[in-house]
Write a structure and sequence with these properties.
single chain; mainly alpha; 8 helices; elongated
Amino acid sequence: FSGLWWLGILVIIIMEVLLHVIINVLMMRNYNATDEGLLKFLDFLGNYSLTSGEVTGVLQQVSGYLDEPLKTVLEECYYEAQMSGDTGIALLSMAEKIQHPKFKELVRNLEISMRYSADFTVLVSQSRRSVREYMRLRQERKALASEAWVNILILGGMTVVILKAVEALIGIPIEEILFHTWVGKICLGGICFIMFLFYNQIRSMDK
């Protein structure tokens, strides 16, 4: 609309970055909600005497005590098993609906235990220990991620100080250089790209 090609490219890049950030924020919200609900889910499962024939029925009962996204996927698993008559396929389908490694592992183990008529009590007990260990390690990664955010803030502050020092030395407003010269635009783009790489690295640490 502006008739400036570089401005159009800049707007596209900003929109892509915003879309990426929004999607990742929503994904992390679901991931954290699943994290918080997993132990609760296992505790409820441990209160039932599970048998191969009533697994999905128990999941449907448990779903009423859980929050999203676990609530909906457990209910859907029950209805899918009722309609198809194949509990194993319903469980495997449910495992793919939430992108959380421990949830997938638990559901697949449930399906295997059901197929071979294994002891569900042992499965629930082992899964509870595994999830607790996973959460302990995740808390450690979160602490590292928090330290990294502090480092980013320090790096950003140092960048501002350096730019202001350059402005004082050359006597030209730094905004003029950054936004109205090709060299400044390249430098600004480089700074934004480095910050984006930092953000991606921290996000991967917090998984």
